[in-house]
Amino acid sequence: MNDSPDRAGRSEQSGEEQRPAPTSGSGRAPHGSGSDLGEVMSQVARSLQEEHGDVGATLEAITSAAVHSVPGTDECGITLVIKRRKVESRAPTGDLPRRIDRLQERLGEGPCLDAVYEEQTVRIDDIREERRWSRFAAEAARLGVRSMLSFQLFVTGGTLGALNLYAQEPRAFGEEAESIGLVFASHGAIALAGAQAEEHLRVAVASRDLIGQAKGILMERYKITADDAFRLLVTTSSRTNRKLVTIAEELSVTGAMPGPDPGRGGGGR
């Protein structure tokens, strides 16, 4: 399409064509596409709201929109650090981000890791001229990367990972791309943190319901109080070295308590 982004955004033929589903190595955002950043972020916000609490879908919405919002971008992915050690690739728009994350985890170096650990924005203009991570740069160049732009994702000081943009051409990311990407990463981090919080809340509610069901079974079976039933679950969890919610789930599904005789301990008769 030959129209500029502003004109195309008002044409009858624009619609969803301006933001097609991302494909590997395609979907490069033209320079100047950041002029509609407000509109783009509004659409992203609506998309994230529709995914309400689904962390995987939220991450996919973030990376898909980033490819079509940040000038020069060919691919995008999110690097998450699990327990401060394991590197995990999430919601990549193609195979390249996965391969780059595996490479960085294997070598223990690279721009995505620096963006995560050192709390900064990292830009590589031409990876063939990169000297900061010599081993990473050589192998990444063979994978087809020429430019990279990595942003730390954070909420209230807690590091979640890095939003990483990839290009197949050198010097693909200018000051405009860096400015837009920083805004986008900030919004993305907040959305991601919100989705994770909702997911944790759902898990907590589900666990509470399972424990409540298990307590009801024990109260009916042994004619004990709710407090006694809960103590019985806790005692069984401690003796079998299994999580309380796991004990509750097994009891609710099978009707049987693992480990010691449930007629003993817990204060029940």
Automatic annotation (TrEMBL):
SUPFAM superfamilies: CheY-like (SSF52172), GAF domain-like (SSF55781). Residues 1-37 are annotated as: Disordered. It holds the Pfam family ANTAR. Gene3D superfamilies: 3.30.450.40, Winged helix-like DNA-binding domain superfamily/Winged helix DNA-binding domain. GO terms for molecular function: kinase activity; RNA binding. InterPro entries: ANTAR (IPR005561), CheY-like_superfamily (IPR011006), GAF (IPR003018), GAF-like_dom_sf (IPR029016), GAF_ANTAR (IPR012074), WH-like_DNA-bd_sf (IPR036388). Keywords: Kinase, Transcription, Transcription regulation, Transferase. Signal peptide: none annotated. This is GAF domain-containing protein. It comes from Geodermatophilus nigrescens. The lineage of its organism: Bacteria, Bacillati, Actinomycetota, Actinomycetes, Geodermatophilales.
